[in-house]
Design brief:
The complex is a heterodimer of chains A (about 240) and B (about 325). Chain A is mostly helical. Chain A has one domain. Chain B starts with a strand and ends with a helix. In chain B, helix 3 runs parallel beside helix 5. Classes of the chains: A mainly alpha (about 240), B alpha/beta (about 325). At the A-B interface, helix 1 and helix 4 of A face helix 2 and helix 3 of B. Bound molecules: adenosine-5'-triphosphate and magnesium ion. The site of magnesium ion has 4 residues of chain B, from helix 1.
Chain lengths: ~240, ~325
């Protein structure tokens, strides 16, 4: 009970002071909306919209989640308010989950922007919403924890932002969002198999189009393992770098 | 309540804290006194779980600090040297958020927050954002936040540095009141007067080592190897001082003014003989006092740190 109160207060405070602020809400909508419109205008047929949707969902989730952690973690760490959270009688794991759940929710929210837009253009029958939600949630967690790893490995906010771009932009091309992984040069394919979004895209594509490279169970399993690994490494990093 | 053995902090190969040992009893106000860089913050950080213990053993309220920190954190309140509250939240919100971190229910939080705002004289600014607070108000609210969950041990790192005299006095009074009601207090400071006025016991820390632990009185008597008598006479002292030094050969005589002089001896001695002697020479004594060393004298004697240098450094820093 006590730890739930602590958890929900940390999450609630982050939502109020960061995520629900008008600039973030609008960026969270404007960005995904902008690139969705950009891609959809060129696609004349419902088939195209369906093909594009998974990539757009993943792009929205990736950017929505990772961009917030520079503020909620690195910035608070610099201003020392993070120290007070470290003093709270809760485990470091619950604390980090509380600090990241806002970003995860924000990512899930972002995922639905292209979906709503696509729904305005075409009807979307035959989408497996359960697999879709599973994919969005796992992907939101994976990319949040990727952002977390960056945020806890640097000390300045601008470093966090620079480093996440270093990861994010190559991922657009390497994880099969718009360019099929099969079309990548041989030597790049191992890289793409290390990137969480590769499995997220495949999982969401399965949900939307019914086609995928890997079985959805395999995709979900790999993604879950990556989620666990990223969280564990981030927490180790906090212990090593912050509790010196 | 706090037991520390061989506590050491290494930053790389630099030993900031070098195997210190002390214990703090329940209900005590214990002060760690030392100049800048002595290792006070490093020590406190290890006790509260914000810094890894390089070597040594710490037990707080019976729990081991290396293995049972979350359990310890439930019982302790921490006031850091710089505020760690949220600028964008209001005073009351900051307090309630603090309470929530310790699992307090909403009703309990609001009640306790109101109580504390009242206790620290901050009712008027409870609904203003923290960033609009003055330094003294910020410090008070930071202390209040640390008290939300009614900790049995309170840790404070330099609770009164950088704030005005009135606020500092109010904070000291609040700490005393809290202590009367049973809270054990561990604080660090580089203000000697503060340590003397507030603490039941003081540990003098210099360059990572504790050089002496004792009550303010014990520390002062430790340097009472020197006994100083100050004498003020009715007439001018001209000529008499030299003679006095010859007659009382065990005394060092220093003329400090037209009609004042200081006598230093290595052994305790009354003022009587000097008064009588001066009287017979036709120089009536108006006042003769035995000067007790201040805690500052004790500090210098015990740590051989040049206080003037400390002060200059402090001024350079602030
Ligand atoms: N994170 C750190 N990394 C390396 N050295 C450090 C670190 N923190 C403190 N030190 C060094 O350890 C020594 C003790 O520092 P500490 O902050 O504990 O002193 P302090 O007694 O609290 O001083 P002050 O009165 O200035 O607050 C100093 O020489 C300081 O430079
Ligand atoms: Mg300090």
């Amino acid at each position: 009970m006590g730890s739930w109160i602590a958890f929900s207060s940390i999450l609630g405070k982050d939502i109020r002071t960061y995520y629900a602020k008008p600039p973030n809400i609008s960026w969270g909508i404007v960005f995904p909306l902008a690139w969705s419109v950009m891609f959809f205008v060129k696609s004349s047929t419902p088939v195209d919209v369906r093909t594009l949707l998974p990539g757009l969902v993943v792009l929205s989730v990736l950017f929505g989640t990772t961009s917030m952690l520079a503020v909620t973690i690195t910035f608070e760490r610099r201003r020392r308010s993070f120290e007070r959270l470290l003093l709270a009688p809760m485990s470091l794991t619950s604390l980090m989950l509380a600090k990241t759940s806002g970003a995860i929710l924000f990512g899930v929210f972002n995922a639905f922007v292209p979906v709503v837009l696509a729904r305005l253009l075409i009807v979307l029958p035959g989408v497996n919403w359960i697999i879709f939600l599973l994919g969005v949630l796992l992907l939101a967690m994976a990319s949040t924890f990727l952002g977390l790893l960056v945020a806890v490995s640097v000390s300045e906010v601008f470093e966090a932002q620079t480093f996440s771009n270093f990861f994010r932009f190559p991922m657009i091309f390497l994880s099969g969002m718009f360019l099929p992984v099969q079309d990548l040069p041989h030597w790049l394919r191992p890289v793409s198999s290390l990137l969480p979004p590769t499995y997220g895209v495949d999982l969401i594509r399965q949900a939307v189009t019914g086609q995928s490279r890997l079985n959805w169970i395999l995709n979900a399993t790999v993604l879950s393992l990556m989620v666990g690994l990223l969280l564990a490494v981030s927490i180790r990093q906090v212990k090593r770098r912050w509790i010196m | 309540m706090i037991e520390v053995q061989g506590l050491t902090k290494l930053y790389g190969s630099f030993p900031a804290v070098r195997g210190i040992a002390f214990h703090v009893a329940r209900g005590e106000i214990f002060g760690l006194l030392g100049p800048n860089g002595a290792g006070k913050t490093s020590t406190i950080s290890m006790l509260i779980g914000l810094s890894r213990i390089s070597a040594g053993a710490v037990r707080i309220a019976g729990y081991d600090a290396t293995r049972e920190m979350p359990r310890i954190q439930r019982d302790i309140g921490v006031v850091p040297d710089e505020s760690n509250l949220y600028d964008e939240l209001e005073g009351l919100e900051n307090l309630c958020f603090s309470g929530a971190l310790y699992g307090m229910t909403r009703k309990r939080r609001e009640q306790r927050a109101a109580e504390l705002l009242d206790q620290f004289g901050l009712q008027a600014v409870g609904s203003k954002p923290f960033k609009t607070y003055s330094k003294g108000m910020k410090r008070k609210l930071t202390i209040a936040a640390a008290l939300m969950h009614e900790p049995s041990i309170l840790f404070l790192d330099e609770p009164t540095s950088g704030i005005d005299v009135a606020s500092a006095r109010q904070i000291r009074q609040n700490l005393k009141d809290m202590n009367e009601r049973g809270t054990t207090i561990f604080l660090t400071t580089h203000y000697i007067e503060e340590a003397g006025r507030l603490c039941d016991r003081i540990a003098l820390m210099v360059e990572g080592r504790i050089v002496r632990i004792g009550t303010p009185d014990e520390l002062m008597s430790a340097c009472q190897r020197e006994h100083i008598i100050e004498i003020t006479t009715a007439g001018p002292l001209a000529g008499v001082a030299g003679e006095l030094a010859k007659v009382f050969s065990h005394v060092r005589v220093r003329v400090t003014g037209e009609s004042t002089l200081r006598l230093q001896t290595d052994h305790a001695s009354g003022v009587g003989p000097f008064v009588v002697w001066l009287h017979e020479r036709g120089v009536p004594v108006v006042e003769a006092t035995l000067i007790r060393p201040t805690l500052e004298d004790a500090f210098v004697a015990l740590t051989s740190v040049d206080l003037a240098e400390m002060k200059r450094e402090r001024e350079r820093n602030s």
